[in-house]
Queue: 4 jobs
Job 1
Amino acid sequence: MSVRYPGTLGCGYQSGMDSPAVQPGGKLIAVAFSDPAIAGTQATDLWLLNPATQRLRHLPDMPALVSLKFTSMAWTHDQRLVLLARTAGRDVVAVWRPGQRRIAVRTVQIPTRNSGSDSFVVWERSTQHRR
């Protein structure tokens, strides 16, 4: 299946699709279309791809101005999409659940990332009780 960017965020020669994130169970795929040089900054635009219908749906509050090398996303087991990003010189964590009208964003302090990777792992405490 071929996915063409449906939005208006730059279509320059450096623009492209960033690493997608597959929802547990595979019902949705979060797809990031990014541009490293739009209006003197960087931006990403997130869309949800439903592989069964091959349709894209735009996430609310997108596109976003972010530092692309410091931005990535992952799904949680309870179907939330979590983004870790740097925007306006600060680190933020953003959380969105399908159906919500807005993305919840909070400023966070994280250790300096100097490994050259923007990847992260969502770690959740087990909801099961220990015996």
Job 2
Amino acid sequence: MARSIGSTFSTQLSSSQTRPFYAVEFLYSIPLRMWTGYGEFEILGNDYQGLGNLVSISQVNESADIKATGITVNVSGLDTSIVSTGFNETQQGTTVNVYFGVLTTTSNALAIVDTPYQIFSGTVDTVSITEDGDVSSIQYGVESKLISLEKALDFRYTDQDQKFYFPNDKGLEFVDDLQDKSIDWGGGEK
């Protein structure tokens, strides 16, 4: 999908000195936000914890076809509170957003050039936690929201299914009777 980017952002990407970063957001009850730099940093109005090289993101693929692609987010060297969140709150369906941005190269201060671009949004599919006494790491398998297009719909147009969602609705009450109903259509009067 073609995206337009701001001229300042484009200039920074094509310059000889570029300071790119990624930011990852897990929307738990208390969101977990981290970025590939160091220290706490405000991105899009939210504080992100800097993990530097301790967070890695697999390649984000796009295609012209409408198909679901996933990514892997691997976070290592974690504080026990983050591992605890990984154990307690991570479940299938937790929303994950990944952003790509560029920092200014004109000073050593942290300043974002233009607005970071959301390069991926999906939901957690699998979580793998590894601890070896010294280092803890979590590997998240994140699927695109398009994965829902590949799943079979569990809804049938029957009275029972309709009443499950809308108990007082009688709109599908006579659907079962239509199966064996013979209707003379356009035959005129006999």
Job 3
Amino acid sequence: MDSRSRIAFAFLILVQAAHSVEECVFRLFDVFGPARWVSGLVSANLPLGFALANACIVLFGVWCYWARVRPSHPSARVYAWLWAFVELGNGISHVFFSLLRGEYFPGVATAPLLFATSCYLIYKLLARHESNAMKW
């Protein structure tokens, strides 16, 4: 992966951290059943369970960056593609639920950043793939 792809990946994890904070502060687990279910799996205290689950997601992203993406591990592109598509879906779904409800939905404020950063990362991953294909 090139340096811009690595930076885009790191920024995506940073945006996910901000997104997680927004979801926690505005209590996504109170309005979204799957978030409530995951929170309950982690702790009987739903706010704590949700915060811990989100912390694990962000920590996994940090690990992916430091252990796979940053050192250009052979699996780096796989991790980058997975994160890009998951976060693209995350961004789209928050906007969708906000429009469906006709009001603010926790996470929708940072959703456009998830969407844009994911799209940029996908663009960089595709551009790198095409430049490699052209060498043949």
Job 4
Amino acid sequence: MLGGRDRAESVLAKIRVALAAGVDWVQIREKDLNARTLFALAREAVRAAAEISGSASVIVNDRFDVALAAGAAGVHLGGESISAPDVVSWCSAGNAPADFKVGVSCHSLEHARDAERAGASYVFFGPIFDTPSKRPFGPPQGISRLAEVCQAAKIPVIAIGGINEDSGADCLRSGAAGIAAIRMIQDATDPGKLANAIERLRHIK
């Protein structure tokens, strides 16, 4: 098992590969890192995004203090995070840049609507397909439920959970604004193939 600093360096290396492959967003979800190490990782990720992509955004899970200090584009809130209304209200009071994003993980249409009413910038919805890391959040939602949420929501819906290139295309055709293909990127061994896959997905209509 990697220590905090080694883990951060490993994650940063993956981030660089993902940025070079053409991802639009990088989400840092490293709950086991202490604040100092997480801040250093987020700051380096922001720098890498500027150097490699020029347009990719970095989002930090849970820690909006770290996200702001590191110059990240936003914060993503899970079930155990501070509530979306509180974070949006705090940001709206002039404590964050005007374009600072607040995202929320959702597992139902009702939850997605709550996030929208709270002022969230976007929602993650899933799990769409079966994946070990998302099993604690319930059974797979499926494409039909994803399409229902995408149609009902006025803010972008990002599909997450068991997504690869093929299933990601189905999600985008169902109305998702984007996909969080975690394993597809983390397990990639050929940067060229990953870049080609992302480019194909980018042109799904």
